[in-house]
Specification:
This protein is mainly alpha-helical. The protein is about 45% helix and about 5% strand. The protein is built from 3 helices and 2 strands. Strand 1, helix 1 and strand 2 form a beta-alpha-beta unit. It is globular and about 40 Å long.
Length: about 60
């Protein structure tokens, strides 16, 4: 059985993957984990956080 869905309130993509998520349904949840509380138009994502999240997704086989 796979776990697919939206990242629940109170969690971020890192937490959701750690909880066993196989798929995250919208890329906006990925962006929110990389740039929390930022203006999506004005902010440039921090590269090191993005790399860490993408490495975790690759390691666990989590897709968007």
């Amino acid at each position: 059985m796979t776990l697919t869905g939206h990242v629940p309130r109170g969690m971020n993509a890192f937490d959701f993957i750690d909880a066993g998520a196989d798929q995250i349904n919208h890329v906006s949840f990925i962006y929110a984990a990389i740039v929390p509380d930022a203006d999506p138009v004005a902010a440039a994502p921090p590269v090191d956080v993005a790399r860490k999240l993408f490495a975790l997704m690759r390691e666990r086989g989590t897709v968007v």
